[in-house]
TrEMBL record:
<protein>
    <submittedName>
        <fullName>Homoserine dehydrogenase</fullName>
        <ecNumber>1.1.1.3</ecNumber>
    </submittedName>
</protein>
<keyword id="KW-0560">Oxidoreductase</keyword>
């Protein structure tokens, strides 16, 4: 049985949910997946940082109601978030990056990932910044250091769109996609259809753990733009940057726009899409679209996301599932660790053969 020592960078909704899963499910993972997780370090802007080579009790971490700088009270703790020291020196096999997504330059998360990979630690992340902005560099750094950079949760939370498209649809030749890729804006549109005003709907999405720290990223389309870049670069072989993707969000949609759509048997949805042209050029866009009720994406409600992948060999293949949520996104981190574990095992098998 394998034990993976992990360092959590950011201890907000998602990483706290991962700690909660560790507290309740480690024994099942040990039995069913062949490993257990041991938290050896945590660093959070608000709470400070702590290293404990023997491991921190996940249940205590989740249940203790730490105040600002509260990790300073723990043995091996400090009231400051010293991410660089934690990432470089904690005895971790895997660094779990779940700090704020910075849609402009991906920092400081890009540096967090770099430090981890450079010091021979795997990285799993739900942070869209480093993936959209620096995936090529980080993947090559991971390869050079014999570790992995995994980021399933950066698109559609725990719904396995990236791995599914790359592994299960290998050879089907994806030529484009369109989808609902932001849980918050989809939730907000649905609540507005029910008569709630925009600001109150955004507040609900925040309370439910769907929204970004700054929900402007959700409602202005910036979050979807990062996801379009990630999927286009990953599945269409593009090399897009966020500024290459045209972007308009939902904040200009008024209650009367929503009402007019309903009267015309249609619904507004924020759609992210990309397509590869005959000459190989990939273009991407984010924009609200009024979809007829019969459209397959029109029935996708709440924080659920869906993406239709257009393929040469199968036509459209649509994947739908949770697009946001704390536990749902923590599951994506677990799925990344499962992938690391499986890759480690196949490397060992190859060596033995
Ligand atoms: N919540 C969700 O449904 C999903 C979230 N994500 C992404 O996962 C990441 C984490 O999301 P949440 O946990 O919901 O966010 P959150 O806002 O609840 O937590 C982020 C935590 O990171 C900490 N933090 C921020 N900057 C830091 C820094 N420089 N150093 C150390 N700690 C720092 C904050 O203090 C906060 O506790 C974000 O990048 C988000 O975009 C991705 C998919 C779904
Ligand atoms: N804020 C995002 C979280 C997942 O990426 C969303 O609402 O989709």
């Amino acid at each position: 049985m394998t034990i993976y020592n992990i360092a959590l960078i950011g201890f907000g909704g998602v990483n706290r949910a991962l700690a909660e899963l560790i507290a309740t499910k480690n024994h099942l993972w040990e039995r069913d997946l062949g490993f257990r997780l041991n938290i050896v370090a945590v660093s959070d802007l608000h709470l400070g940082s702590v290293i404990s080579p023997n491991g921190l009790d996940a249940k205590t971490l989740v249940e203790a109601n730490f105040a600002k700088g509260g990790f300073g009270q723990l043995s091996g703790g400090s009231s400051e978030a010293d991410n660089e020291t934690i990432i470089k020196t904690a005895p971790a096999d895997i660094v779990v990056e779940a700090t704020f997504t910075n849609p402009k330059d991906g920092e400081p998360a890009v540096s967090h990932c770099r430090w981890a990979l450079q010091t021979g630690k795997h990285v799993v992340t739900t942070n869209k910044g480093p993936v959209a902005i620096a995936a090529r560099e980080l993947k090559s750094l991971a390869g050079a250091n014999g570790v992995r950079f995994e980021y399933e949760g950066s698109v559609m939370s725990g719904t396995p769109v990236i791995r599914m498209a790359e592994k299960t649809l290998a050879g089907a030749e994806v030529t484009g996609f369109e989808g609902i890729l932001n849980g918050t804006s989809n939730f907000v549109l649905g609540r507005m259809e029910g008569g709630l005003d925009f600001a109150a709907a955004v507040k609900e999405a925040q309370q439910l753990g769907y929204a970004e720290a700054d929900p402007t990223a959700d409602v202005e389309g910036f979050d979807v733009r990062l996801k379009v870049v990630i999927l286009a670069n990953e599945l269409l072989g593009a090399n897009l940057k966020p500024e290459d993707v045209t972007c308009k969000g939902i904040s200009d949609l008024s209650p009367s726009d929503i009402e007019a759509a309903a009267k015309a048997n249609s619904r507004w949805k924020l759609i992210g899409s990309a397509v590869r042209a005959e000459d190989g050029k990939v273009t991407g866009s984010v924009a609200p679209k009024r979809l007829a009720l019969e459209h397959p994406l029109a029935a996708v409600n709440g924080a659920t996301n869906a993406v239709s992948l257009n393929t040469e060999l199968l036509g459209a293949v649509t994947i739908t599932g949770p697009g946001a949520g704390r536990i749902e996104t923590a599951y994506a981190l677990l799925s990344d660790i499962v992938a690391i574990h499986a890759a480690g095992k196949s490397a060992v098998t190859k060596e033995a053969a």
